[in-house]
C-alpha cells in the first residue's frame, strides 16, 4: 500500500493528459483523444482538480473533480463533481479509489470548495455512502407528455404560474447554467439546444428511446434557469413546437426548489442519486437545484 | 380579426382612464443603441417631438461604451468613443441622462451569460458596474444619480452598490407582467409596496428613491391599448395620487404611434406627463416606505 503515491495532476501538461487518457481509454474501453478529458472537465472558473495515483512512477488510478460555480443566497461558491474514477485492472482492490477521494477531501477543503458531489452508479454508490461518508439525495422525474397540443399538455404538467409567483430559492444551490451549457457545447455544439427568452433558459438535448418496438423522441432537459416564472410555459411550448417530440423529460434532484412549479412528479429510484460530502458548507438543510445536465455524462 | 374586435371594443370601452387620483408619468428610455445612426436620430427626433407635446424632457438611461456588447457593436458600426460622447452631448440637450446597467457572467456578452437574480455573480457585477460608472466620471457625463436595470434585474447586492456609489433614483422596479423580477416581487410583498408607490431604501448614510415603471408605452395604433393595460396596473385605491414612468427601448420605438398615444392621453385623460425633476418631488404626495438595506 505504501508504494502508492497520490499526486495532483497538472492537466496543462501534454504528457500527463496523455497518460490519463490512455488509462481511462483502457479502463472504459474508449478511444478519446488526448485533449478530450480537459475539454469536458475544465469549467470557466478553472478550478477543476485532477488527482492521480502512481505506483513506481506509473499512473495506475485517476479521479477528476469538475469545479462548478453555484449560486447560494446571492453568493457564488465552487463545488466539485467527482467523475472519471478509474483504476487499472492490476491495481484494483487496493483501496486506491478511496485514497483518491480522501485526498480530494483534504485538498478541496483547503481550496475553499463548498462540497464534493457526484452521481455514482450502483457499483460505487455503496463505497461513497458507507466508506466515504457521503449522504444521498434521491432523484425525481417528470415526463411532460405531448398530448393533443402543447397548451393542453403544459396546463396539465405545469402549475398555474402568475407573475407574482416568487421562486423561493433561499438556501438553494443553483448552478450557473451558462457555465454548464458552455461545458457541454465544447464537444458538439449542435447537440445541445438552448431555449431562452424573458430572462429564462431551458437547455437540453433531443434523445431517442425504444418503446413497443418503435423509437420515440424526447427532449431531455439539462438545466433550467428561472427568473420570470410566468414566461416559462412559453419556452416549453417552443421546445414542443421545434423539436417534434413525444415528451419532455425533466430529471432532477428531489429537493430542487424549482420543482414546485410542476405537477405529476415521480420518484426515480433507478436513477443514480446525488451524493454529497460537505467540505466548507454544511448542506443538510439546503436544496440542490440540479437537473441532469450537471452530470458529467449528460 | 383582432383589429376589428379592438376597433369595436374601443368605440365603447377604454376611451379614458377610470382612476380618481392624479396620475403623473415620466418617460424613460433604456438607451442601448446610441452607436446606431438611425436609431439615434429617431431617438433625438422623438425627444424633440415629446418636448413639444408635453413641455417636458424624457429620461434616457444609457449603456456606456465600457459595456462589452456596446463596445463590440460600436466597432461594427465604426463609432468611436469620441463619436459616442458627441451623441451623448446631443442627447443631453433633449433629455435627462441616467445609467442603464447590463452585466454578464464573464467577458462574453451573450444572452445566456446575462446576470439575473438566479444567475448572479457579485464579482463580475461589481467589476462591470465600477467600470461603467468610472466611464461616466472620466468623461464628465452626468448620470444624475439615475439608474435603470437592464433586463429589469435588481437585487440586494446591486441596491447596496447603487447606494454606495451615490445613486439617488432607481427605475428598475415594476409590477408589470413583463418587467418584474424576483427581487421586486419579493420586496413588494415583504414591505407591502403598492403599485405606483414611491419608496426609499436607506443604508444609514445614503438613500435611494425607487420610482416604479408602470408599463411600456404602447406603440400600436390604438392608444386605448395603453389605457386598457395601464388600468390593470393601477392601485386598487383609486384616490391615491401616483407617479411613475413608462418606458421604451430606443431601438423598438415607433415614433408616430407613440406620439399619437401621448397626444390621445393628453386630450382624453387626466394623465400628466412630467420630467425627472418633477417626478422626484412626488415623494411628498405619496406614502413613503423606509427600510434599511439588509446586510
Description of the structure:
The complex is a heterodimer of chains A (298) and B (295). With 298 residues, chain A is an alpha+beta fold. Chain A folds into two domains: 4-113, Aminopeptidase; 138-271 and 287-294. In chain A, 25% of the residues lie in helices and 35% in strands. Chain A contains seven helices and 15 strands. Chain A has helices at 14-28, 36-41, 96-110, 122-131, 150-157, 177-185, 232-243; strands at residues 4-8, 49-55, 58-72, 75-87, 115-118, 135-137, 139-145, 172-175, 193-197, 200-211, 214-225, 247-253, 266-267, 274-278, 287-288. In chain A, strands 1, 2, 3, 4, 5, 6, 8, 14 and 15 form a nine-stranded mixed sheet that branches. Chain A is globular. The model of chain A has no long low-confidence stretch (mean pLDDT 94). In chain B, strands 1, 2, 3, 4, 5, 6, 7, 8, 9, 10 and 11 form an eleven-stranded mixed sheet that branches. Chain B is built from ten helices and eleven strands. Chain B has a single domain, classed as Glycoside hydrolase/deacetylase (TIM Barrel), CATH 3.20.20. Chain B has 295 residues and is of the alpha/beta class. The model of chain B has no long low-confidence stretch (mean pLDDT 90). Chain B is globular and about 55 Å long. Chain B has helices at 2-12, 37-54, 68-76, 81-94, 122-138, 156-164, 182-190, 223-232, 255-268, 276-279; strands spanning 23-31, 59-62, 96-101, 146-149, 169-170, 199-202, 207-210, 213-216, 242-249, 272-273, 290-292. Chain A binds chain B through residues 44, 69, 71, 74-76, 163-167, 169, 174, 176-179, 181, 194, 196, 198-199, 201, 225-228, 230, and chain B through 105-106, 110-114, 116-123, 151-153, 155-157, 177-178, 180-182, 185-186, 189.
Amino acid at each position: 500500500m505504501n508504494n502508492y503515491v497520490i499526486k495532483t495532476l497538472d492537466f496543462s501538461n501534454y504528457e500527463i493528459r496523455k497518460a490519463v487518457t490512455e488509462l481511462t481509454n483502457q479502463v472504459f474501453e474508449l478511444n478519446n483523444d488526448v485533449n478530450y478529458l480537459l475539454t469536458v472537465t475544465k469549467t470557466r472558473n478553472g478550478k477543476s482538480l485532477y488527482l492521480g495515483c502512481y505506483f513506481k512512477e506509473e499512473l495506475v488510478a485517476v479521479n477528476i473533480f469538475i469545479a462548478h460555480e453555484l449560486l447560494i443566497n446571492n453568493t457564488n461558491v465552487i463545488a466539485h463533481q467527482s467523475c472519471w474514477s478509474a483504476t487499472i485492472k492490476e491495481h484494483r482492490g487496493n483501496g486506491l479509489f478511496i485514497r483518491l477521494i480522501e485526498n480530494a477531501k483534504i485538498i478541496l477543503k483547503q481550496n475553499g470548495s463548498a462540497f464534493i458531489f457526484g452521481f455514482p452508479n450502483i457499483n460505487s454508490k455503496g463505497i461513497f455512502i458507507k466508506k466515504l461518508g457521503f449522504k444521498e439525495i434521491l432523484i425525481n422525474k417528470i415526463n411532460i407528455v405531448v398530448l393533443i397540443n402543447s397548451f393542453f399538455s403544459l396546463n396539465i404538467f405545469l402549475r398555474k404560474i402568475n407573475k407574482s409567483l416568487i421562486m423561493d430559492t433561499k438556501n438553494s444551490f443553483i448552478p450557473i447554467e451558462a457555465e454548464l451549457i458552455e461545458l457541454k457545447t465544447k464537444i458538439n455544439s449542435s447537440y445541445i439546444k438552448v431555449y431562452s427568452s424573458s430572462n429564462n433558459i431551458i437547455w437540453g438535448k433531443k434523445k431517442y428511446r425504444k418503446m413497443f418496438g418503435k423509437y420515440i423522441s424526447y427532449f431531455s432537459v439539462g438545466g433550467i434557469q428561472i427568473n420570470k416564472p410566468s414566461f416559462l410555459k412559453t419556452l416549453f411550448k417552443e421546445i414542443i413546437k421545434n423539436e417534434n417530440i413525444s415528451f419532455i423529460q425533466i430529471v432532477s434532484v428531489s429537493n430542487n426548489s424549482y420543482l414546485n412549479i410542476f405537477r405529476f412528479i415521480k420518484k426515480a429510484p433507478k436513477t443514480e442519486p446525488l451524493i454529497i460530502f460537505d467540505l466548507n458548507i454544511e448542506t443538510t438543510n439546503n436544496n440542490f437545484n440540479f437537473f441532469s445536465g450537471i452530470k458529467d455524462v449528460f | 380579426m383582432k383589429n376589428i374586435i379592438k376597433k369595436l371594443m374601443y368605440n365603447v370601452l377604454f376611451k379614458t382612464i377610470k382612476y380618481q387620483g392624479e396620475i403623473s408619468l415620466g418617460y424613460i428610455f433604456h438607451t442601448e443603441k446610441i452607436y446606431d445612426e438611425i436609431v439615434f436620430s429617431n431617438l433625438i427626433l422623438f425627444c424633440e417631438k415629446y418636448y413639444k407635446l408635453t413641455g417636458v424632457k424624457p429620461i434616457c438611461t444609457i449603456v456606456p461604451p465600457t459595456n462589452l456588447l456596446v463596445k463590440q457593436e460600436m466597432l461594427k458600426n465604426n463609432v468611436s468613443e469620441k463619436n459616442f460622447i458627441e451623441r451623448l452631448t446631443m442627447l443631453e440637450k433633449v433629455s435627462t441622462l441616467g445609467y442603464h446597467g447590463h452585466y454578464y457572467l464573464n467577458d462574453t456578452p451573450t444572452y445566456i451569460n446575462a446576470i439575473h437574480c438566479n444567475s448572479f455573480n457579485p464579482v463580475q457585477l461589481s467589476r462591470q458596474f465600477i467600470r461603467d460608472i468610472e466611464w461616466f466620471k472620466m468623461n464628465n457625463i452626468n448620470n444624475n444619480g439615475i439608474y435603470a436595470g437592464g433586463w429589469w434585474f435588481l437585487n440586494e447586492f446591486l441596491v447596496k452598490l447603487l447606494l454606495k456609489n451615490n445613486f439617488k433614483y432607481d427605475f428598475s422596479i415594476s409590477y408589470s407582467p413583463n418587467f418584474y423580477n424576483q427581487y421586486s416581487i419579493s420586496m413588494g410583498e415583504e414591505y407591502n409596496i403598492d403599485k405606483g408607490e414611491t419608496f426609499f431604501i436607506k443604508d444609514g448614510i445614503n438613500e435611494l428613491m425607487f420610482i416604479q415603471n408602470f408599463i411600456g408605452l404602447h406603440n400600436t395604433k390604438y392608444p386605448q391599448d395603453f389605457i386598457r393595460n395601464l388600468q390593470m396596473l393601477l392601485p386598487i385605491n383609486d384616490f391615491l395620487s401616483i407617479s411613475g414612468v413608462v418606458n421604451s427601448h430606443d431601438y423598438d420605438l415607433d415614433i408616430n404611434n407613440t406620439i399619437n398615444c401621448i397626444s390621445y392621453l393628453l386630450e382624453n385623460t387626466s394623465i400628466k406627463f412630467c420630467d425627472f425633476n418633477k417626478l422626484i418631488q412626488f415623494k411628498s404626495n405619496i406614502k413613503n416606505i423606509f427600510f434599511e438595506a439588509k446586510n
